[in-house]
Amino acid sequence: MFTEERYNIILQELKAKGIISVVELVKLLDASESTVRRDLNNLHNEGLLKKIHGGATLITTETAKHDYKVNVRKSLNTDKKIEIAKYAASLIEDGELIYLDAGTTTEALIQFIEAKDIIVVTNAIVHAKKLLEKNIRTLILGGELKTVTEAIVGPISIEHLKKYNFTKGFFGTNGVTNENGYTTPDINEAMVKSEAIKRCNKAFVLCDESKLNEVSFITFAAIKDAEVITNRIKNTERVYDTNIIEVKKE
Fold it and tell me: pLDDT-based confidence at 250, cuts 50/70/90?
């Protein structure tokens, strides 16, 4: 396949999906990983897409405004998510009652949990399974299972949350700004996140640098309602009205 043909296919896929991973492109183009990465670098340099770790997005802020399937999100920014997740897990202490929001970075946190005698409440089926595999006492919210993000949402979930008082909560987000706070594309997920964050004595939002200074459709919490754990602050002059925990790569 000629280079121009690959470029056209990559850009068409991005136009249709908004985001795509290197793994997907290797299969789609029947090309090597090094070829795909070179193509993405060239298209990035030409200003036709935004290259991110593990894939690419459109050159707009539209990616913050859409939910993408879990298998797509898992393959993006993986190294950064691991750094963030590992640090977040270190904040969990013995005997705590934890809320764990749905999301790929919060899911990555599970493998690093070392605290004993904790109870974790989650609205994610995948999270619940992984927690049980670690012999962690796990409670899962009731409600409607959302296909794209595999999160449990709806009024039943919100009613269940009202019974808890969490020591700490760990949340995902699609965007973070001072003005709009923490944002997500779906109103039902936003409502669950909003109630859960209110029930936490201390809340942390886990997000890689691509989420900073981005805005999605629905605000689920004000910027001061949680601390941000991120891998790098992409604009060092940007001052946030909350504590930013910047995780350094070891």
Answer: low
Q: What is the pLDDT of residue 186?
A: 85
Q: Which residue has the higher pLDDT, 65 or 139?
A: 139
Cα 191 from Cα 159, distance rounded (Å): 11
Examine residue 35 and state whether it is found in any structural domain, yes or no.
Answer: yes
Residues 23 and 146 placed together within one structural domain of the fold: no
68, part of any domain: no
Q: Which two tokens stand for residue 224?
A: 């001061």
Closest CA to 99 of 245, 219, 198, 10: 198
Say which range, 72-81, 141-150, 208-217, has the weakest mean pLDDT. Answer: 72-81
* Three-state DSSP class for residue 119: strand
Q: Compute the distance between CA of residue 244 and CA of residue 43 in angstroms, rounded to an integer.
A: 32
Q: Classify residue 212: in a domain, yes or no.
A: yes
Domain total of the chain: 2
Strand partners, 25: none
Q: Which residues of 143-175 are buried (b: 16+ CB within 10 A; e: fewer)?
A: beebeebbbbbbeebbebbeebebbbbbbbbbb
